[in-house]
Amino acid sequence: MRVLVVEDFLPLRTSLQRGLREAGYAVDAVADGVEGLAFAQTSTYDVIVLDVMLPGMDGLTLLRRLRAQRCPSRVLMLTAKDTLEDRLLGLDNGADDYLVKPFAFEELLARIRALIRRRYEQSAPRVEIGDLVIDTAGRVVRRGTRDIELTAREYAILEVLAARPGRIVTREEIEERVYDFTSERGSNVVDVYIGYLRRKLEQDGDSRLIHTRRGLGYVLAVAEPA
Fold first, then answer.
1. Residue 4: which of 21, 27, 25 has the closest Cα?
2. Which of 146, 166, 128, 112 is nearest to 2 (CA)?
3. Torsion of CA 13, 15, 21, 25, to 10 degrees
4. How far apart are CA 207 and CA 223, in angstroms?
5. Taking residues 38-63, what's their average pLDDT?
6. What is this structure's pTM?
């Protein structure tokens, strides 16, 4: 999944970008509101982590601009202010969640996971497709009684497919969700990783779960769609 961090304090911005990437997210990070707006208008992010106090354009103004443009991203506001009035101001202007500095990184991760579930209308962190179980909180994948070890990129692609079970997800959509602007993308990189995933998911004669819709994309489902 893809996250945009808009934070002007360099140590925190760098720390968030590094930590979120280590957690498996594709992350872009910018230092001011004007650049944040430009990034949010260029790509679709699952979650935007947005500081309130920013140079160029403050976080609340940026938030209002995004909501006026019907930006679908979930927005987690960061602020040093902990008054009820400040929290209500952010929420009333379209924020989905609010986190007061300083905060524990584990709490930030938990809130981002919850926002992603809300974005894709998942009621629980556990996703089941047939005998495949994906625990998005623990980032654990099992098929039947077998644990499946995935690389960060493999898991990211599987999570994108699992967010829309039974529906076609195009190669372009997968790339948009799992690669940030600094990532190098090959012309067939998604197909290569789908191949890796299939080999790991279909060991010991297990049935196919990732189906190719030629010219369209991929579908994660128990049976191949008609």
1. 27
2. 112
3. -50
4. 9
5. 92
6. 0.78
Is residue 19 scored above 70 in pLDDT? yes
* Mean pLDDT (whole number) for 12-35: 92
Distance CA 29, CA 36 (A): 8
Q: Are 2 and 26 in contact (CB under 8 A)?
A: yes
Length of the chain: 226
CA 60 to chain CA mean position, Å: 22
Pair 168, 213: CB distance under 8 Å? yes
Indicate if the pLDDT at residue 122 is higher than 80.
Answer: no
CA 56 to chain CA centroid, nearest Å: 26
Look up tokens 């911005």; give the residue: 13
Going by their DSSP bridges, the two strands 47-51 and 74-79 should be labelled as parallel
If one compares 173 and 88, the residue with the highest pLDDT of the two is: 173
Please give the structure tokens belonging to residue 180.
């940030």
Distance, CA of 111 to CA of 201 (rounded, Å): 29
